[in-house]
Amino acid sequence: MKLSVKCMMTFVLIFFAGAVCMKAGDVSAAQFPAPEKACLHCHQGIHPIRSYDSDMMKRITKTGRKANDPNGCVFCHGGDPMEKEVAEKAHSGAPSQVKLDLFTNHPGALGVNDKTCGQCHQNHTYAVRRSIMNTDAGKIKTILWSWGIGTESYDHKYGNYDIDDPNGPEPLFGTRAYKQYMKKLANDFPAQFPDKLTQIPEVNPDTVTDNPGQAAFAYLRSCNRCHLSVKGNSSRGSSHGMGCAACHVLYSGEGRYEGNDKALKKHFREKGEKPGFIMVHAIQSSRKTKTRVNGKTYSGILVSTCTSCHSSGRRTATTYQGLFPSYRGAPFTKEGKKQLPCSGNTFKPMRPDHHHKIYDSDGNFKGGLLCQDCHTTTAMHGNGNIGVTTLADIEVDCADCHGTPDKYPWELPAGYGEEFGRELRPAPRGVSARPMKATEEFATLYPARDGFLLSARGNPMGNVVKDGDKIVVHSASGVDFELNPLKRIKQTDKWKHPVKAKTNMVNIEAHMSRLECYACHSTWAPSYFGYHYKMDFSENRTSTDWLKSGGDIKRDGNTAESLGQSYTTPGSAVGSYNFYRWKNPVLGINGEGRVSPLVGCIQTVGSVVDYNGKLVVSNQVFRTAPGMENSSEEGQRAIEMQPLNPHSTSLESRDCFDCHGDEMAMGYGLDGGIYDDQPDKAIYTDTVDANGQQLSRYSGTQIEAINGLSMDLAQIVNDKGVQMQTVGAHWEMSGPLTELQRKKLDMEGACTACHRDLPSGTIPAAMLKKISEVANISFASAEEHGELLGGNNRLMALIKVAAMFGGAAVVVAGLFIFMVRRRK
Q1: How far apart are CA 745 and CA 666, in angstroms?
Q2: Which residues of 651-690 are buried (b: 16+ CB within 10 A; e: fewer)?
């Protein structure tokens, strides 16, 4: 009996100890083939990088066993698994069975990942070096353009590092149709598909006095800290890994280690618990890859991982989550302090993208799509060619899943949604019986059902399948979403917002063939107008040179910056915006030739102080080369409005009058630009008489003049149709709305069709009274009047005809018919 009690107590203690271990670090010894052996002699409590029953770990442990490391750590990290006493010796060398010849603590870094990740993913490690997430070529082009550099063409010449593409123009990944599509696109648009890039030049401060635009080179070197070759800034919300680990290893916003590895916890403490550490030693990838931390399990790559980089610039990751970077201090924290910045931003809460928060038919929250659910492997890893712009690299389009009211996605032709001014072959794209080869090899495989949907460029989307007339979207998060394509919704007449949907998508064909879907369904977009920044080279000022620091690659994959040995570039930058807003973005034409939202992003108003302390450029708007961007011989203003998908998609579209009749949407500026009063003139506030004369000898300007800016920063075209600034610095086809498109949006005359003799109007009072009685409407409120007009585009068309031809009777008849039908 006593023995039984002892046995029971022993069992309880063992179980309790195991439970505590699982709670603290989510690791049990049984998860490792050889607990406490080899590397685990010191790294007790560490989380396995992947589950040991996965295909990946089976291959890793097979190699590890040959190298006296049954747990497989040496496969990725190298080192001496037999050394147990001295850490420095354990962290040196590597077994001959692995490609590495030394130990590395950053196996995903681009300096070594061909010998680590590349043991299984060789094509991916080649492609990711050339991806836009490492080249930054698009951002570089835009910023240099805004300083008047490289504006003679749309060629993309510079990247973060010298890079070429010895594999040639054919992509490494994708179907034959996709590869042919991309080769033709590159042939048609060589400026956006270069075969090499040159690193951004270093700046000689002595030349800045005569060539102040070169300050942009120094700015870029001190700014580009979010590419894959560096760990970058480890401030709150910005921590990420290097190379492959930038996406595939979890970092929290606070950048603190939260696993239970005793050695790593000690290392973290020795570093003063500074941010920049992995949250847990585990890979995040697809649905089949389960990651466990702090008692919770998830799958896929978290949105916060993407946000660590994509929270600045065009800010799509924060917009997707419903966060508008507005640099607010409130609401205050629980300690009464200002709102803590995340990735350098503080926020105003907004409605998130519909895809980020999806609800079922009963209004219950189901979950949302992760970034990777739409953005395919060719966009995220690169396709093997040199990436320079998102429009060139991203292959998915809204219609790839939603179709149109007249065609299911599989009935659409290839290239629909991104025509680039080309005629499309009418043949339907169909579906694929199999996913891409890369998906079959590495990603989660889902049942094909009636076939995998194809992207506009011809690749199967491995997580999106046809199921009869419905579509199933498998999220890497583990949630499956059933989608009704637009054609099925039209056939069953089950619109969520029937008036808007039928009017805008069914009755007006041009909305579907000429507009991006997000032109109407992006109800807000973060726009930042007039980026004033000063580059100061005086007094030997310097900044971190992220390119030289990231380009100094050590044999173990570390860079100078990851080791805290950063290089510097001459000059320091300080910047501020003129203003920012989120409501009703401007509309224009993107590089594909479709109407798209535009946002202010890189509207440079530059100032430069040379090394002698002389202000050589003050609040300057630079210009393009003559003839570029529909300009005269003096060139176009190089400030830019950028076409993009803001990632603020709403189920209900913008109201008709958000575009029709809105001068901001048409490109004429805020309410036609009436608020900006001569921004190229200095403003004085102190002791100014009625004639504007300064009375005090000591008064200075309150607001300095902006040289070269004579209009609203949101204005891209004036009332004479003259383009006023750059629209997209990447693609020749991008620009303002055409004159015909602006006329279609212009509602001038619509009101006077009924109200020519304001305030009495032209409709006889008796007739108006009769209409009111029959339709039971009195126009008593602005809301009622707005509902009448905004809810029916056919009525608006009738009113516009009447405005043109003076047909008051036509208006009355139309109103009468509409009111009677509306009442029924």
Answers
A1: 7
A2: eebbbbebbbbbbbbbbbbbeebeebeebeeeebeeeeee
- The encoded tokens of residue 565 equal 């040995």
Closest CA to 136 of 122, 157, 153: 157
Say if CB 94 and CB 74 are below 8 A apart: yes
Residue 161 DSSP one-character state: S
Q: What kind and span of H or E run contains 252?
A: none
Rounded-to-10 torsion of CA 293, 296, 297, 303: -80
Tokens of 546: 């992220």
CA nearest neighbour of 309 among 378, 365, 395, 229: 229
Q: How far is CA 235 from CA 194, 240, 737, 813, in A?
A: 34, 10, 41, 65
**782 Cβ contact partners less than 8 Å away, ≥ 6 residues apart:** none
Give me the mean pLDDT over the 234-262 stretch. Answer: 91
Cβ-Cβ contacts under 8 Å for 127 (sequence gap 6 or more): 172, 173, 381, 382, 383, 384
Distance in angstroms (rounded) separating the CA atoms of residues 148 and 37: 61
Confidence of residue 344 (pLDDT cuts 50, 70, 90): confident
Nearest to 130 by CA among 377, 382, 378, 438: 382
According to DSSP, residue 294 is labeled T
Residue written as tokens 């406490």? Answer: 36
pLDDT digits (tens, 9 = 90+) for 93-132: 999 999 999 999 999 999 999 999 999 999 999 999 999 9
Rounded distance, CA 458 to CA 374, Å? 15
Is residue 750 helix, strand or coil?
A: coil
d(CA 185, CA 392): 8
Q: Please give the span between the terminal C-alpha atoms of the chain, in angstroms, as a whole number.
A: 87
pTM of the shown model? 0.87
The residue assigned the tokens 């006593």 is 2
**CB neighbour list of residue 451: distance below 8 Å, 6 or more residues apart:** 410, 430, 431, 432, 433, 465, 466
Long-range contacts of 797-802 (CB under 8 A, 24+ apart): 799/750, 799/753, 799/754, 800/747, 800/749, 800/750, 800/753, 802/753, 802/754
Which residue, chain included where needed, has tokens 């692995």? Answer: 98
DSSP-derived pairing of the beta strands 735-736 and 586-589: antiparallel
What is residue 554's DSSP assignment?
-
Determine contact, residues 136/175, Cβ cutoff 8 Å: no
Beta carbons of 304 and 253 less than 8 angstroms apart: yes
Residue 439 CB coordination number (10 Å): 22
Burial 556-565 (b: 16+ CB within 10 A, else e): bbbbbbbeee
**C-alpha to C-alpha distance for 293 and 252, rounded to whole angstroms:** 11
Handedness of CA 309, 311, 312, 316 (dihedral sign): positive
Residues 594-624 have pLDDT tens digits of 999 999 988 999 999 999 999 999 999 999 9
Local confidence band at 23 (pLDDT 50, 70, 90 cut-offs): very low
Token couple for 450: 């009636």
Token pair for 172: 């490494």
